[in-house]
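>> received
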Amino acid sequence: MGNLDKSSLLKKLQIQLNQDWKRFQNIIMIAKDIKDEYKGSQDDLYRMFIVFLHATLETLLREILRFIFINNPKYILNDISIISKSSKRYPHKITLSELYEHKDMTVDQLIKLSINQFLDKMSFNSYREIINQLQKAQLKTKILTKYQDNIDAMISKRHQIVHRFDRTNSKDEKPIESLNYKVIGQWMYNTAMFCNDVIQLFDPGSDIAEVNKESMKFFQRLIT
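>> returned
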C-alpha cells in the first residue's frame, strides 16, 4: 500500500466525504418520500444509512491514524503485533517462523505493513475507543466531547442493526423499533461535524469543512 503525503490524503478525504454526504442526502430524500403503508421499507433505508454513516466515520479515522502512526511509529508500536498470517493482532511473543515470513523486508517496511494490517482490522465500537486512538496519535480531543452522546447512540444502533437485525429483545411484543428521521438527522449532523473537527485537529485550517457547508445545512434542516 502506497502512503500518501498529507496534502494528497486531505484531497482524497475531501473527495470521499463529498461523495458520502451526497449519498446520504439521497438516501434520506428517498426514505422521506416513501408512503406510510411502506413504513417498514423506509425504516430499512434508515438502517442502511446508519451502517453507511458508521463506515464513513471509520474510514476517515483509519486514514488519518494511518498517516500519523506510519510517520510516527513510536506512538503505536507497543500496541500492535508484527504482521503475520496468524489472527493475532496485539503484542505477543514473536516466533522465528513469523520473522522468517518477512526475511526479505527491511525493518521499516515491516513496521509499515504491521501498522497497516492493524488499522485495516480495527473497528471503532464506541466514542471512547475513538478518543483513545486519537490520543495515542497525540491529537488533542477535548473539542470532541460535545459529540459523545450522539456518536455513542449512532454506533450502538449500528451494532444492533448489524448483529441483531435491529431487534431489541426477542421477548418484547414489538422487538423492532421504528426509526425517526429527525433522530437520524441528528446523528448525521453530529457525525459530520465530528469528522470535520477531527480533520481540523489533524490539519488546523483545513478547508474541507468549508467544502461541506451545503451538506451541513441539509442535515441541520432535518433536525429543525
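>> The radius of gyration is 20 Å.
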